[in-house]
Write a structure and sequence with these properties.
It contains 23 helices and two strands. With about 650 residues, the chain is an all-alpha fold. It starts with a helix and ends in a 12-residue tail after the last strand.
Length: about 650
Amino acid sequence: MNEAIATSVDAGLSAVATALLTAATPVETPVEEEPPPEDEERVSSQALLILVTLLIAALLTSYYLQRWRIRTVHETVLSIFAGMAVGLVLRFSTGSYIKRIVTFDHTVFFNMLLPPIILNCGFNLQRTSVARNATAVLTFAFVGTVISAVVIGLIVQAYSLTGIENIGFSLLDSLLMGTILSATDPVTILAVFEQLRVDPKLFSIIFGETVFNDAVAIVLFATLSSLRAAGREFTLSAVPGMALSFIGVFGASLGLGVALGVGLALLCKHLQLYNYPSIEAALALLVPYQAYLLSNSLELSGIVSLLFCAATMRQYAYRSLSIRSQRTTRYLFHLLSGLAENFVFIYLGISLFTSTETVFRPVFVVYVTVATCISRYAAIFPLSRLLNAIFKYRHPSAPSSAQPVTHEEQTMLFWAGLRGAVAVALASEVSGSSGALLRTTVLCVVVLSVAIFGGTTPQVVHLLGIRTGVPQPDSSDDDSDSDDRRAIIDLSTGPQRRVSVDDTPPPLSRFSSPWSEPNESWISRIKTSFNSLDRSLIYDIDKHYIQPMLTRKKRSSSAAGGNQPYRRRRRHSRRSSSVGDSMEEGDQADEYHVHAGSSLEATARATNATWNSYSPSEDDPNWESDLGTPKRRSEHPLLGSR
């Protein structure tokens, strides 16, 4: 009886969807002949004009949403719906050639659109915040991705065994679909977080998890795809071989990316590329892309190589770049990533209606959407409880607010489990009898997840009471992120903000813990000492040995005009650029402006000491305890009344 009701409901929904998608089974339509060569350029220009027009409309929409401070909806959600509307019009109004151009192509995505996004993620990887939450980030990225893939695969296989809608998936096909849908892509949520300026801890956990999650999902997909291409079925005996293959591919890809990043750092150190900023910036853009292509050509993971090459370049090669190249690379990577992200959402919306091979099962789409939510819950909440329990065992006296992942952060992590273009691109590589159904289902799940979870993110942030308006100390969009401006003092963030001359925070004490107690056991003290020693040792090795080998030594303050007054050097920098002096003179003037010499460094250290000793009481009328900043700049404890 229940099966009959489900069959009738499915038949009714399929009849409604027939007008929009190619229903139940793919119908072979006669392929329209390609236009003659003299008309091919014109038709291609028309297709690209549609995409560029939608991209411009998305950017203007983003401008007005930010100008009017509209937080209820994000431009990525509007982009995907605009693409769906245009795709619906194209489906019934144009020929197959132009639809084939605007339809999602996984080769275009992997070779042109994904590299700028991953490059910007790796380059702007917030080293300090991610390092402080490395345990949670790596746990969710590796263990959580495997749990999500297995849970989705088992749920899909259970649905296939019931015989409803005649899915006919094997266990390997179900696990392959679970691996595809385990790749999260919370671009919308991270963009909303940047606008709301949420807690840096939560931002770093979600940011780091999604970056490593995509890499893990792609490597798992490649491992299962090789098993499927060999015609073998998934068995428990194949798990050790898959694990070894995964470790080998991931490790080789990581080593390749780091090696090319180190090579670029050595080039920037030993060659005088700072005299040619255009060449310097071009190499910073092309070398990570070379790592991506080389890794893919060797059947490794290009996304892993690109990610770690960009992170290595940011840590070492970036310090040897000239000031102009640092600014150029920072803003160029951010610009390319933003354009690629908006274009991807438009691309997905159009492809929902312009795809030629579609097998639409509405009940199965809803079922898989629910399965992704269940898998996300299984990957977040149990692992969070485990991390909190381990932290509580190691630090019994720590307050609940100091846990690695609080309950509000767990809920936000669950809500950030969007599926995006990476899942659609992986599904496009699946062939066979189940390929069309898998591709259509994944595309529909991605659209639903972006619309539901991405569109309600601001409301969820407000309901959970997550802190907003918090300064992001590791944001690379700020000019103070430059390694050459570490000594600039920021008096606008209040005395609780500790400004250090070095952009890396000081290491923890080698034999102390922030939650240690005088009467704790000697075993706990030894564990704490070794953990702090490891972190301090890595910090010391990187700062005193690796960085001097891979980075160019900056000019001394006296050689760079350190005896000149600061304002005079700044005017000289502007005057040099205004009269059109050579590149070398402009770079030297910029270094005059940045390297303020030992006097500014001493001022920064003195200011840090003053701020650390300043502890205002709650009765102070000039102090707001919730924001941690003085009410009026004129009454700043260091500036005094004006």
